[in-house]
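Next comes one such specimen:
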Amino acid sequence: MIDSIFKQMEEEFIPGILDKPLSFYFSIDEQRKTIFLDSQSCRVEDGKKTENADCVCKTSADFFIRIWDSNYRPGLKDFLSGDIRSNNPEALKTFLTAFGKSA
C-alpha cells in the first residue's frame, strides 16, 4: 500500500501550490523515501537522497495510510506519544496541501 501511494504522488501533485522548493525524507517502517517538491514538480526517490531535508518524518505504515487515505491529521498527542515524529510538523501540512489534501 505504501509503495502505491508513493508511486502515485508525482501524478497527484498540484503545480503552483509551493512558492519555494522543499525536500522531505520519510522513514515509514522499512520504507525510506526522499521527495523533492517545487512549484511545478514532484520527484520521489528511494532512500535518503539529501542530508538536510527540510522535513524529516518517521512513522508507521498504518499511521501514514491513516493520514493519506483517511484524512486523519496528527495532533500534539500523536507527536508526544511517538506515533509520528518530525523536525518540521508545519512542513507536513504544506506537503499534504501540495497533493490536494486538507491540512
